[in-house]
Design brief:
By secondary structure, the chain is an alpha/beta fold. The chain contains 17 helices and 24 strands. The protein has a ten-stranded mixed sheet with strand order 9-8-10-7-11-12-13-14-15-16, with helices on both faces. It has a six-stranded mixed sheet with strand order 17-18-22-19-20-21, sandwiched between helices. The chain binds ligand UAG, adenosine-5'-triphosphate, 2,6-diaminopimelic acid (API) and magnesium ion. Belongs to the MurCDEF family. MurE subfamily.
Length: about 500
């Protein structure tokens, strides 16, 4: 739990001129500053936080943490107000470490997972394995804080004050184990640099978020920060080496003296050697330290086995006995909105909801369904507004290549014109049917599936809203799928 107030120096901060006021709280947004707070005035994409120092001072800020540019922008205001000023060329990193010290406790065993796809899945499986082993655990990320203790989160990797408040609350509630997602934005903005990790995981690297990072190199460098900087030298990197970028991540971690556990189909310390699929799941064969194992997984999709084995590697890296870890596999359950069976038609055709929102995830999800499906595969896809626009035609193309029938619809158009987004997706899927209204698209998709067929509703997964402009309209793919099935099978009263 955070203290009521501590001196600036006990938070490891040195102010210009040696001022050392008591600090009563931390804020990154001037509107949240209260009497005695430290205000972190960070450079932003739209504006420099230093523009709000005057406001923060009026709210009672006792200290300001900023960079050289911020110090220049607000020099007069700060001199006149007499606040303590800390200037650093790494204000985000310093804020993370300060937040860790301010909130104090975090679960003693923490792991973080990065990669384009699979972060939520792997961190959820890590948490499920720990709980199956009798430990008190949570996962933190896109789906909020879940597990032995729950709380909502607005971001996949929250900014450091929110993150460390959540970790301290978890620790205060007796949580000893935590698995978190490290998004590329979060890593780039040093949001998790104050978290003490035992292990870090890497899933895969494909296209996403180029609107923010601009180049693949910058996107890779952001993710590599988990292994090059955040993971301590006595920590363990657990990497998927089927992805060439995983081999690079392993080399980055090894060069710093970190231990490395490799996971893969083609080789690796933890190697997946066989998979047999059926209607409700799959049987896995794999090896660890020269010993073979065979386990049942009640999960749909070949890639989920990769996620599960990466999760096993992370739990083993934290000190668990491997055989105990593998014994939990038959008890793992679907991650919310990830290859989730949402409804089944009277004719046996199944509707799955999945969070695939990148070209690679759409291809992976559809390919993963094939071995479980005898008939045709129908896909419903759409792309988000105010997000990487270059991925749109590629998402359409991935659906067209791997499904037998494609319906293009809306997925959080946000501030953009939904018709423009759909036409970009349709460039990659010219034969697709365009149905803007997502509920109608789901109804049409459900109507199209006969015996042995399956429908994949991609893009929204666990989400419960459709963001149009600034409004979030209630919308849940799982619920809509059930409604559509009930309506078409005459089960609505
Ligand atoms: C693109 C991005 O990451 N933006 C982050 C960034 O905001 P920004 O650069 O746009 O900030 P700005 O509006 O220019 O303002 C600059 C500074 O002034 C401050 N300010 C602003 C207004 C005011 O009145 N007072 C004030 O103090 C702001 O708090 C900010 O620190 O710095 C802010 C403070 O640190 C973050 O909250 C904000 O995350 C926003 C909320 C966001 O939506 N981020 C998304 C894109 C994100 O991080 N997503 C990933 C997705 C992961 C995935 O899909 O894999 C995630 O981890 O969730
Ligand atoms: N190992 C994997 N390889 C390829 N695709 C995957 C893998 N795991 C999950 N996916 C696909 O990516 C989608 C998102 O999965 P998940 O939510 O676990 O990823 P994430 O990395 O947390 O995404 P986000 O960036 O939104 O936080 C899934 O619904 C599935 O379609
Ligand atoms: N965390 C991802 C989720 C995308 C999900 C999809 N439904 C969309 O809105 O694009 C993002 O914000 O880019
Ligand atoms: Mg996620």
């Amino acid at each position: 739990m955070s203290p009521s107030s501590v001196s600036l120096s006990s938070l490891g901060l040195t102010a210009r001129g040696g001022a050392n006021p008591d600090i009563a709280g931390l804020a990154v947004d001037s509107r949240l500053v209260r009497e005695g707070f430290l205000f972190a005035a960070l450079p932003g994409s739209r504006v420099h936080g230093a523009e709000f120092i005057q406001y923060a001072v009026r709210m009672g800020a006792a200290a300001v943490l900023t960079d050289a540019e911020g110090a220049v922008i607000a020099a007069d205001v700060m001199a006149e107000a007499g606040v303590a000023v800390i200037v650093t060329d790494a204000p985000r990193e310093v804020l993370s470490r300060t937040a860790a010290l301010w909130f104090g406790a975090q679960p003693a065993t923490m792991v973080a997972v990065t990669g384009t796809n699979g972060k939520t899945s792997v961190s959820t499986f890590v948490r499920q394995i720990w709980i199956e082993m009798g430990l008190s655990a949570v996962n933190l990320g896109t789906t909020g804080v879940e597990g032995a203790w729950t709380a909502p989160l607005a971001h996949t990797t929250p900014e450091p004050i929110t993150l460390h408040r959540a970790l301290a609350d978890a620790a205060a509630n007796g949580i000893t184990h935590g698995a978190m997602e490290a998004s590329s934005h979060g890593l780039d903005q040093r949001r998790l640099d104050g978290v003490t990790l035992k292990a870090a995981g890497f899933t895969n690297f494909t296209q996403d978020h180029l609107d923010y990072h601009e180049t693949f190199e910058a996107y890779f460098d952001a993710k590599a920060g988990l292994f090059a900087r955040v993971l301590p030298e006595d920590g363990t990197a657990v990497v998927n080496i089927d992805d060439p970028k995983g081999v690079e991540m392993a080399a980055i971690a090894r060069a710093r003296g970190c231990a490395v556990i490799t996971v893969g189909r083609d080789g690796g310390d933890l190697q997946l050697s066989g998979q047999r699929f059926d209607a409700t799941g799959q049987d896995l064969r794999f090896s660890w330290c020269g010993k073979d194992y065979q386990k049942r997984l009640e999960l749909i999709g070949g890639f989920q086995a990769e996620n599960v084995l990466l999760a096993c590697g992370l739990v083993i890296a934290c000190g668990a006995d491997a055989a105990d870890v593998f014994d939990t596999l038959p008890h793992l359950t679907t991650v919310r909105g990830r290859m989730q069976l949402a409804a089944t038609r009277d004719n046996g055709a199944a509707v799955f909801v999945d969070y695939a929102h990148t070209p690679d995830a759409i291809a992976t999800a559809l390919k993963a369904m094939r071995p479980h499906v005898m008939g045709r595969l129908v896909a419903i896809v759409g792309a988000g507004g105010d997000r990487d626009a270059t991925k749109r035609p590629l998402m359409g193309a991935a659906a067209a290549e791997h499904a037998d029938l494609v319906i293009v619809t809306d997925d959080n158009p946000r501030s953009e014109d939904p018709a423009v987004i759909r036409s970009a997706v349709l460039l990659g899927a010219p034969d697709a049917t365009e149905v803007g209204d997502r509920a109608e698209a789901i109804l049409r998709g459900v109507d199209a599936i006969g015996p042995g067929d399956a429908l994949l509703v991609a893009g929204k997964g666990h989400e419960t809203g459709q963001t149009v402009g600034d409004d979030v309209l209630p919308f849940d793919d799982v619920e809509q799928a059930s409604v559509a099935v009930a309506a078409l099978d005459g089960r609505l009263t």
